[in-house]
Amino acid sequence: MSDFTSNFWPMFIIxxxxxxxxxxxxxxxxxxxxxxxxxxGDSTSGHVWDEDLVEMNNPLPRWWVWMFIFTIVFSLxxxxxxxxAGSYAGKxxxxxxxxxxxxxxxxxxxxxxxYAKFVAMKSEDLAKNPEARAIGERLFMNNCAQCHxxxxxxxxxxxxxxxSDWLYGGSPEKIHETIAGGRMGMMPPxxxxxxxxxxxxxxxxxxxxxxxxxxxAARAGLGKEKYAVCGACHGADGKGNxxxxxxxxxxxxxxxxxxEAAIIKRINEGKTNQxxxxxxxxxxxxxxxxxxxxWGLSNK
Length: 300
What we know:
mainly alpha; elongated
């Protein structure tokens, strides 16, 4: 219920849940009191179809009535013990989140002996260990491949983990830091700081020239001086800064698209790119094995 921002929805759910149960009981009681008098003094309602199809006026079978009563009692007990009536958490304090966390803790406890042999090993050694690599690959496929791809080569906006280009550093320590704590990469819109649209286009061509990509040499020459604004993060030589996650502009690896138009778009609009933190998802041993696997992807 934490997603609800007002008291209306919890009350709405209480009315639906409790009202439905009470309504069922009221209907059962009301129908048991209604008696339809047969025209002939027998147990029929007097309705006849096709001359010989007669509607009987028999009460519900007792087993059926007791089934309704049991359902009503069970529902009331359930709502008292478990969440189901608005924001009321239930006497037992059960939640799907709590059950999930308990199951994860139980599974991690059972897996501790499997990971124990890897705890004292260095990432470089783990990356060479076939068993550790196999476990690391499964962890990667289940948790990381959705963004970085099953082959870890990434896609637009999601870094390639198989090359040597690292935004925040490719050492085991830096990879551990990235996976555990996540990253928030942010480039602010820089068009206003550069000047006019022509200045932006000139700087974009200068950036292309840093990596030897196809560019307008005349515009690149005009954009070199204005690039100093960008050099504060990306460096005067455009090789980036791993301490702040500023990309290397002197290679031909483009995370958000290559070419003049893509660079102009980034200068005009900026970009925020987030990788979530995974420290709460993995045990320290699992994290160690995953780090070694990821490190090994670019260090064959």
